[in-house]
Amino acid sequence: MQTDTMRIDTVQPPAPTPDIPPHRRDRLLVAVNIAIGAIIAYLVIVPLAMLLFSSFKNSKMKLPFQVPGFTLDNFAKIFTSQRFGEVTVNSLIFVVGAVVLALIISVSLAYLFERTDLPGRRVLAPSALAPMAVPATVMAVAWMLAANPTNGPIAILIQKIFGVTVDIYSLPGMILVAGIFGVPSMYLMLAPTFARLNLEFEEAAASSGAGWLTRTRKIVLPLTMPGITAASMLLIVIALEEFSIPAILGMPHQIFVFSSLVQDALQPPSGIPDYGRASAYGILLVLVSLVMISVYRRQTRESHRFRVVGGKGYRSTPIRLGRWRFPLCAMVSLYVLVAIVLPILALVWTSLTPFLQPISLHNFRSLTWSNYTAIFTNSSSSQAVVNTLAVSLITATATAALALWLAIASTRGNRFGRWLFDLSFLVFGIPGVVLGMAVLFLYVYVPIRVYGTIWIIIIALTTRYIPRGSRMIQTALLQLDPGLEEVGRVSGASNAVVLRRVVFPLVAPAVSRAWLSVFTNALGELPIALLLSSDGNRTIAVQLWDLIGENANYPEASALSVLLLVVSAVAIGWINRRGGQQHI
Predict the structure, then answer these.
(1) Per residue in 97-140, pLDDT tens?
(2) Among 545, 71, 46, which Cα is nearest to 277's?
(3) How many CB atoms within 10 Å of residue 428?
(4) Are 506 and 392 within 8 A, CB to CB?
(5) Topology given in CATH for the domain delimited by 23-58+372-584
(6) pTM, full prediction
(7) Domains 23-58+372-584 and 95-255+324-350 alike in fold
């Protein structure tokens, strides 16, 4: 009779560090926690306090700390002005329109890609997610070139086929571009919900005679509604803070939403800012965003009530589309072509032209590389490229380090660590243009010489991206079995050694994904860089803004956009190769 034997490997305790005893290492961890807490509180609370302070100052063109006393005049002027009503209506239409459009497209794509046998899914799915690699500033420039009423290929095509004039410089145009830009984020949040939906529920309804529409309305949508609602709330926050698209496309006809109005109050064409009014607008925008964030967090906390996947009998067989397979495939392909391919093609084409001209075979002979040459021969553009790379690299590194420690403190620490983690989430409800304004006021007042350098932009961007990075890393930490760390402690290792030899190596892929994600987002960040820019710290996004708004140099702006797009696409491709995307 043969018996199985079990070999038990003994875990050798790590070699002790002679100069730092274990109890001192643990004290060091506590000290680091306190230091990180102080940094997070400084980055988050102090700028918000300065913004609130400024909103109660009748400062106008003076800085808030140069005006004595406090007043409610800023809020009174806002609520009684005719412009407030107009901007409120514009913002409401813009946000609701963009969210509804993104919701319709992303739910349709998630259902088709995750639930059906749609042909070509392996090609169409990544193509539909391509806007992830396109910064919002570049997206706005691409659509401006593709759908402008003068020579945009999409506008010309619609005019010839339907006889309808398209004007991208309008509120519907802003909604269209913002909706398409929001599709990838919403799709990535909804795809797991549709993928995990148990087919047996629909099969039971089908056996009772329910048609596809009835099954979708009474089974699929109710079961996926928590995920849809949470994704919608998050996209509302993103649309509220979106600056690049409404600023670039609304600028020609002076169409403002709250985010662009804040920037206009700080940097008006007249050159006379109104800091108090801008701060009051910023506080109102923060309050609305925080309400949406709280609704989003409540939805995600209660999502366990709608779990439909168990460990027994779960199947994920795709639904057969039958005769609708190829028509639906054609519709998705048309969406990818019109919404993504044509705008990028128009951008690349314009970057190769000596002046703005339509796409045609006749104009092929005039294509040139001079716009790309100008980027590296023009000192202003080349310095913007260097500044952008420096800002993105340092921001990504600082954010990844702080985010890693925050994630560890929230999952492996005490209540203080979880409080710090929740505090950082507050930043997600602060629109970028508002955060930039708060940092501007703070460092003009605080005697730290960072204003006018790239460091003030790095500080603001690090504050902005900490909550996103920490949640990406926290997801990876929650997947680790605490038993792995207990083995190290039982063997005599201190908390510091366990973190260094067990936890850090296991979460390294998540940290690298967070780093690359922050790097990609920082490349095209416009509102913060625009508010904090000066002659010595201009970035590519600010250079783009000036080339379009002041000089109307669309070919060189397109070349800069293509350069930004290529770097961003390479980073996104690297993220995908290292394990896909993680989102809040």
Answers:
(1) 999 999 999 989 988 888 788 888 888 888 888 887 788 888 99
(2) 71
(3) 22
(4) no
(5) MetI-like fold (1.10.3720)
(6) 0.81
(7) yes
